[in-house]
């Protein structure tokens, strides 16, 4: 964790040193001319360059380079562009126009190399023509760069490599948790697989810009996907933490997460939306983790420490969260959880094998494996078996219940013939049936004690036939 934080601090300092000085731009009325653009009525741009929904001519005065290193004009944003230096045309990215019909959309990033002979020894006039009629959405900061830098521009290969490593680790975790879910049908492994998969997919989408110079109209889809994936991860994080450490409030926490994180779509700026979606998800996951620490639930302390670190990085370095640190933080959570899950399942398997070996001579009892250990439950005292997320609930005579780490399908074949599947999530012991009755448009099966059980339409006939051959204490009513 601390190594990750130190790495983020180091890269942030490098980014600050490398940040280019802002250029002062003027917005003008312009038109193409024989010897270059003809500009008039130029006025300073107070905040930022925004060509959305219009054709925009901008002008800046820049100094000549102090060395002989080649230079290029870099333009990045949701706009088509065309550029001139001292009246010499540098090139075009798409074709800017006065309307959507006149414009040909360009790429999101454009590079215009500058010939050395184009520079003047004193002041140099840079003119850029922009238009953006095909952006799809309105961006708070449509242009991310319009600046002259050394050519070729140094790529952030180290950052890209780390992102790919994190993506590979997250995909591996997705596969691992997916296998665990296929074998054990545990809800927690499915949620963790979703968290890892969503984060891996977001890392791929984040890497599209340096890898693929896409047409600028696709930028709205890319940014929307990044926000949606970040929101999905945040909601899944709350689902996982609440289910594990505060299951009674799981529904409430999920409702708060869906409502609060979904509301970030209304915030201005996609980076702002993405960061706030992640921050809200982490903030909502902290209370259940804190409850787990207070109750001394295993695993609560490291999860709470992880959430605190995530929140500290988000508050301290919001500009790095969505682009870089997010993937490292997610990998640092799901990979240890995957290893812990594999070790835990191995121990459970060995414990089950030993318990089953001891229980061979006791065919009238069911070996119940749970987080607390192994217990032998008399089959005759089982009223019903009800599916309960990662486990099944055994409802016993006397109001007791046990959670059993087994699949409902497997128990269907293990239990005696007097146990019948009456619903996709319910197996009933017909020896304890009292009556079957209609409740509106539904059917309910009443046992000797406890709450009535739901009966699905598709299983009514089989249930009635089984009840005809099973003595019950009271008449069966339709």
TrEMBL record:
UniProt keywords, alphabetically: DNA-binding, Membrane, Signal, Transmembrane, Transmembrane helix
Domain HTH LytTR-type, residue spans = 366-469
Instruction: Indicate the secretion signal residues.
Output: 1-20
Residue ranges crossing the lipid bilayer per the database entry: 158-180, 187-205, 225-242, 249-268, 274-291, 303-320, 326-343
Matching entries from InterPro entries are given as: LytR-like, LytTR_DNA-bd_dom
Q: Name the domain of life.
A: Bacteria
A molecular function annotated in GO for this UniProt entry is: DNA binding
Q: Which PANTHER family match?
A: STAGE 0 SPORULATION PROTEIN A HOMOLOG (PTHR37299:SF1), TRANSCRIPTIONAL REGULATOR-RELATED (PTHR37299)
What protein name applies here?
DNA-binding response regulator
